[in-house]
């Protein structure tokens, strides 16, 4: 018999309390609740009655449905939290495993392509927002969450509050980025949010920002698959090509692990092209030993 809202609400409340105690972000809490609801719908009964075989069947169901690896892994993480923390039923999730996903190289724009994209932005607000995404390496959620008070032009920093993982960090804006933000502020005089949405009391949505990014890429005739995250990838790669230490880039991006940042070493084409092949070294040695005569 399908579960009712009355039956699940105490359980859901308990799970939300467990996530709140651990300072999960509101979006993360929402996503976790939705995934448990989907699991319950698959079962047709309250999820706290599930067995290991039920969890296993659900994983098979997701795989057979053609769901992507990230979604499967997010579901496994959610169910692990639900059974381990909220229900204290460790045995259910001891044998659940995430799926290994081959890491793909990110799409990166050249500096010239970035310049074209920013010039093609649909209006000053979006040009400023996209410039922050590239110029400071911010995620979409971090860009739209910026407030006027987060821009410290005296200290030359942008304060990013509660980024991914609930961590605050400071990033550096360039003088040209600060000038652009001043131009935007003087033109629109936003109050509170740096990039307000249609309702000035609310910030711009990530959906609006991504749509503007896609429109700008199309106007700039960039044929690569571009998203707002592409600007963040490009920020990291271009810094690496300027010989900025990868550990500094890790801090600027707010990455927990250096391995995540090190991925950009595989797409830094300028750095790669400047590496001299050992074959070239060998040819130089041979020319030294046997000068042309």
TrEMBL record:
It comes from the Bacteria. Keywords: DNA integration, DNA recombination, DNA-binding. GO terms for biological process: DNA integration; DNA recombination. Pfam families: Phage_int_SAM_4, Phage_integrase. The keyword Phosphoprotein does not apply. The keyword Metal-binding does not apply. Residues 104-277 form the Tyr recombinase domain. InterPro entries: CB, DNA_brk_join_enz, Integrase-like_cat_sf, Integrase_catalytic, Integrase_recombinase_N, Integrase_SAM-like_N, Tyrosine_recombinase_XerCD. Belongs to the 'phage' integrase family. This is Tyrosine-type recombinase/integrase.
């Amino acid at each position: 018999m399908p579960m009712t809202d009355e039956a699940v609400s105490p359980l859901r409340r308990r799970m939300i309390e467990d996530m709140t105690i651990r300072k999960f972000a509101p979006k993360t809490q929402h996503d976790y609740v939705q995934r448990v609801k989907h699991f319950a719908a698959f079962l047709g009964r309250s999820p706290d009655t599930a067995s290991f075989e039920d969890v296993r069947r659900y994983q098979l169901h997701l795989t057979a449905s053609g769901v992507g690896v990230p979604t499967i892994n997010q579901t496994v993480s959610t169910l692990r939290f639900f059974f381990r923390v909220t229900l204290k039923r460790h045995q259910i999730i001891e044998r659940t495993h995430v799926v290994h996903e081959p890491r793909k190289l990110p799409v990166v724009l050249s500096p010239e392509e970035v310049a074209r994209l920013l010039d093609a932005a649909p209006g000053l607000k979006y040009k400023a927002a996209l410039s922050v995404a590239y110029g400071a390496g911010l995620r979409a959620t971090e860009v739209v969450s910026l407030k006027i008070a987060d821009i410290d032009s005296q200290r030359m920093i942008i304060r990013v509050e509660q980024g991914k993982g609930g961590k605050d960090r400071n990033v550096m804006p360039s003088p040209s980025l600060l000038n652009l933000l001043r131009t935007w502020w003087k033109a629109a005089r936003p109050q509170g949010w740096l990039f307000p949405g249609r309702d000035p009391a609310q910030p711009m949505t990530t959906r609006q920002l991504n749509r503007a990014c896609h429109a700008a890429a199309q106007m700039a005739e960039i044929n690569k698959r571009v998203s707002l995250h592409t600007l963040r990838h490009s920020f990291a790669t271009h810094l690496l090509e300027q010989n900025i230490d990868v550990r500094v880039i890790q801090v600027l991006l707010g990455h927990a692990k250096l391995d995540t940042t090190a991925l950009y070493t595989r797409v830094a084409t300028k750095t790669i092209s400047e590496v001299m092949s050992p074959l070239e070294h060998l040819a130089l040695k041979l020319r030294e030993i046997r000068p042309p005569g």
